[in-house]
């Protein structure tokens, strides 16, 4: 479908307008063969980056130099992004500092790629060029390094993680023994990877259909210990994935890598911080992870309405939902078989978050100022006290009642001071 899309046609037309030759490559070819949705479109071309830029601009397409050192230009049309990379081969590789040289040879470009299933080309006419038998591997669920696994990981240790990421999404057991062994031997080098590179792969791995199975495989080969030793709760992760994907919960919950990571972590708040640091998570993501992995309160299926509303008010509906899923997964992972009634109660707990509407304390700082309280920290102290009172009354107090209570508080303080 995407090959027929207007944006794709426009990019093809621009890049081939003056006789240039292009091929699609990587994930979009692999996923098109499997008829899976694609993430981004990678294009390989003979033309050097400057010429790619000129051709795109001539056609009125925005061209952004996203990786000039690697010869990558991103073409942007509306929401569609195309990564256009000049054919290259890696001359000497020292980790990620490969010395890149442009080439005219499609097969050399394929040979620098990581796995056979990622080294397939597709011409604009739909013809697939498959130099390393990637199609057969894809069909058989084989994730196979292009060349020697040991050497390819030596060149770039990120490929070790990518191996498990692609195995998680495209592989079928048994995993390749030589590849696993090469990964085991070089797993200690994972510590050298930057957080950003680690994070991208880990998040993609966690979105796989059975991330717990792959983490277990990594643990069995002493690899996970070098990456995320805190990820130990495979049982809970497995149940969470089951809950997400079995349609028990409506509306369907999308696989959420951070929630899945939280499910697998067996740590306190401090441990969660370490994980966030190692993965270089943004502040917002780090906070979310710690709120999920080491929460002060967890919802519970036996919670009464009032307690549920209180938690909903404190954390908001989306977070409540996440916490409820995690709590449910924990219970199911450690407990005995769940009765139908118990399952139903968990489902209603989640439903509650759908129907809940945020409520807001009906008095504000300006009301305090009108009562003569000077601007400053006292205002916050009063508002916090009012919030507690309002919560104790189950958020039912009207504005008038709340104002009365506020006047009472303020005048009492004036008397005692
Ligand atoms: P996704 O669906 O996640 O986009 P992808 O296969 O397109 O999967 P990318 O990370 O977008 O993966 O990389 C695009 C292509 O570049 C890969 O298919 C592979 O051919 C090549 N590639 C990417 N990273 C590496 C690497 N570290 N070593 C060798 N080749 C790589
Ligand atoms: Mg891609």
TrEMBL record:
tRNA nucleotidyltransferase/poly(A) polymerase RNA and SrmB- binding domain residues: 179-231
InterPro entries registered for this protein in UniProt: Bact_CCA-adding_enz_type3_sf, NT_sf, PolA_pol_head_dom, PolyA_RNA-bd
UniProt keyword terms in alphabetical order: Magnesium, Metal-binding, Nucleotide-binding, Nucleotidyltransferase, RNA-binding, Transferase, tRNA processing
BP terms from Gene Ontology: tRNA processing
Listed cofactors: Mg(2+)
Recorded superkingdom: Bacteria
Molecular functions (GO terms): metal ion binding; nucleotide binding; nucleotidyltransferase activity; tRNA binding
Domain Poly A polymerase head, chain residue ranges per copy: 23-144
Family statement: Belongs to the tRNA nucleotidyltransferase/poly(A) polymerase family.
Protein name, as recorded: CCA tRNA nucleotidyltransferase
């Amino acid at each position: 479908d995407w090959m027929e899309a207007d944006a794709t046609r426009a990019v093809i037309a621009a890049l081939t307008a003056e006789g240039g030759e292009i091929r699609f490559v990587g994930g979009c070819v692999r996923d098109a063969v499997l008829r899976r949705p694609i993430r981004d479109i990678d294009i390989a071309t003979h033309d050097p980056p400057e010429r790619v830029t000129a051709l795109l601009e001539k056609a009125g397409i925005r061209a952004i130099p996203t990786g000039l050192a690697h010869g990558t230009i991103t073409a942007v049309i509306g929401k569609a992004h195309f990564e256009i990379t000049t054919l290259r081969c890696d001359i000497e590789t020292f980790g990620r500092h490969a010395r890149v040289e442009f080439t005219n040879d499609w097969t050399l470009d394929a040979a620098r790629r990581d796995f056979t299933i990622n080294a397939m080309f597709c011409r604009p006419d739909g013809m697939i060029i498959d130099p390393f038998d990637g199609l057969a591997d894809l069909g058989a669920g084989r994730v196979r390094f292009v060349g020697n696994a040991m050497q390819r990981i030596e060149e770039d240790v990120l490929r070790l993680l990518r191996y498990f990421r692609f195995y998680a999404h495209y592989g079928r057991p048994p995993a390749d023994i030589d590849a696993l062994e090469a990964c085991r031997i070089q797993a200690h080098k994972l510590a050298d990877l930057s957080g950003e590179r680690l994070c991208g792969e880990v998040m993609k791995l966690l979105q796989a259909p059975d991330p717990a199975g792959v983490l277990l495989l990594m643990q069995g080969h002493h690899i996970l210990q070098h990456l995320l030793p805190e990820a130990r709760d495979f049982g809970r992760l497995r149940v969470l994935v089951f809950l997400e994907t079995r349609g028990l919960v409506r509306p369907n919950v999308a696989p959420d890598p951070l929630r899945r990571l939280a499910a697998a972590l067996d740590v306190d708040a401090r441990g969660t911080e370490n994980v966030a640091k190692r993965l270089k998570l943004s502040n917002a993501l780090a906070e979310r992870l710690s709120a999920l992995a080491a929460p002060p309160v967890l919802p519970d299926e036996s919670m009464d309405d009032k307690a549920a509303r209180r938690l909903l008010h404190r954390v908001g509906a989306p977070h409540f939902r996440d916490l409820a899923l995690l709590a449910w997964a924990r219970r199911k992972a450690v407990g005995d078989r769940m009765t139908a009634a118990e399952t139903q109660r968990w489902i209603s707990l989640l439903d509650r978050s759908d129907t809940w509407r945020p409520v807001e304390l009906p008095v504000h700082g300006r009301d305090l100022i009108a009562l003569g309280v000077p601007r400053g920290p006292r205002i916050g102290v009063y508002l916090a006290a009012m919030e507690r009172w309002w919560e104790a009354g189950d958020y039912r107090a009207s504005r008038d009642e709340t104002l009365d209570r506020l006047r009472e508080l303020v005048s009492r303080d004036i008397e005692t001071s």
